[in-house]
Design a protein that fits this description.
two-stranded antiparallel ribbon, two-stranded antiparallel sheet, alpha+beta, 3 helices, 32% helix, 4 strands
Amino acid sequence: MFHQVYVAEPDREALRFLWWPGNDTTQLPVDCAMNVFLFGATCSPSCAAFALRKAAEDNLTGASNHAVQTVFKNFYVDDLLKSCRSVEEAECIGF
């Protein structure tokens, strides 16, 4: 999920790293920056949760109300934790 959340260009400076081409540390490293959130950064879970909630908020009129409410009430970071009484009820979530 984290790689689906883009980092704003001004914030990419905080996610800079050095990369040695071919894994050869005798060469000069290349200066790189992440364009997406990485798995393992301390901020990634909260940023991913914010992005998911923001997407639901931005689609209040375009998505089913059930799907939007499921995002608001039943997600923990990138895990959907929801019980349904039937397959039909689960299918109406809209994911």
